[in-house]
Write a structure and sequence with these properties.
The structure is a homodimer of 207-residue chains. Chain A has 207 residues and is mainly α. Chain A folds into two domains: 50 residues, Arc Repressor Mutant, subunit A (Orthogonal Bundle), CATH 1.10.10; 153 residues, Tetracycline Repressor, domain 2 (Orthogonal Bundle). In chain A, 73% of the residues lie in helices and 0% in strands. Chain A is built from nine helices and no strands. The longest helix of chain A has 24 residues. The first copy, chain A, is elongated. The mean pLDDT of chain A is 91.
Chain lengths: 207, 207
């Protein structure tokens, strides 16, 4: 096995181990020493596979984003309007799509609480690298599709900004709603709140 | 000075010191040892003034909530409709009020970033005490007033739930928007996003 192959193998083993720890005990429990012990390498070897622990965490978080991507891609959404101005029915379908996407986000957060939280808890000392940001931005595209139906008048750049804001609003509802110490809402209650509020948001966005 | 008076004095000194540390360096920088040194008491004396560090942090967070309460109470909002069903103008004023409250929240977070963040970062081992929860709930009342105009049909309990969800949505927009590593939007851009999205939310809520 070449040095590069061995490094790749170590990288995969460390990512698996870190993912398990984060999923089980949360990001705060992640320690380089424990990881080295778990995969059976020297502490220093971690830094031949990753420049630092931040980079390892980002690799785990990228997996979480890809898992979410598969979840969200499976959400049944409207095919989108054909040519010409969107009809009233198109707009209603787009509002429903926004609600469905938000509910899928709630479900994902509920099913993978620790991994999902790690996406936001991880505060790095530098900005995330491009490959990570690209994946984040890709996920906003799912929101941009119904938004294009609701607000065909918006310039592309403004629409992608509004898509991010819609995501942030949904994230706020989900994260405070699932926070046991703060709001403590059950998932069915939270789901109905999302239907009410994200539904209102979609309806109110259409001109 | 009685023992109780001395304890009250120590309590105030510790709260001041903790508030300064949180405002300057954030919640993570708060250490009992440093606090004791700063107020000139023995480490153990802290625990005669507060049952634990959690209780001290909650006292600081209560001050932050009260400061926010003063800010939000100064937001100029519509006097609310008189008798009878709200008119279209009443509803428009209520939507504007929701936007104004959300913008005030953004401004508060921007002016007191560390203290504001501490309100949400602080994860306690037990649920917050009633006096703290009461103050949180009191703040939702500001959102309930315009909501009453927009959705007079909702039962009281449902309305207060929707008010919380509106707060969560706004909090999501503000907190991800101000997060330098995640979204990194400037305050004027964020402000316009709030106007677009919270405005849409308010309009979409009216039946």
């Amino acid at each position: 096995m070449s040095t590069e192959e061995r490094r790749e193998q170590l990288r995969a083993a460390l990512t698996d181990a870190a993912e398990r720890t984060i999923a089980r005990e949360g990001l705060a429990a992640l320690k380089a020493r424990d990881l080295a012990r778990e995969v059976g390498c020297a502490l220093g070897a971690i830094y031949t596979a990753f420049p630092d622990l931040d980079a390892l965490i980002l690799t785990v978080n990228l997996r979480t984003l890809l898992l979410f991507d598969r979840t969200i891609a499976a959400v049944r959404t409207a095919p989108g309007p054909g040519e010409g101005a969107p009809s009233r029915a198109d707009r209603e379908a787009a509002v429903e799509d926004l609600v469905r996407l938000a509910v899928a986000y709630l479900r994902f957060a509920g099913e993978h609480p620790a991994r999902w939280r790690a996406l936001f808890q991880h505060r790095m000392t530098t900005a995330p690298p491009d490959w990570y940001l690209r994946e984040q931005v890709r996920l906003f595209r799912y929101i941009e599709a119904p938004l294009r139906v609701l607000r065909p008048d918006l310039p592309e750049a403004e629409r992608s900004l509004v898509a991010r804001t819609l995501f942030s609003a949904t994230h706020g509802i989900v994260s405070l709603g699932l926070d046991e110490k703060l709001m403590a809402l059950s998932e069915p209650v939270l789901r109905r709140q999302i239907e009410t509020v994200v539904g209102a948001l979609g309806r109110g966005l259409a001109p």
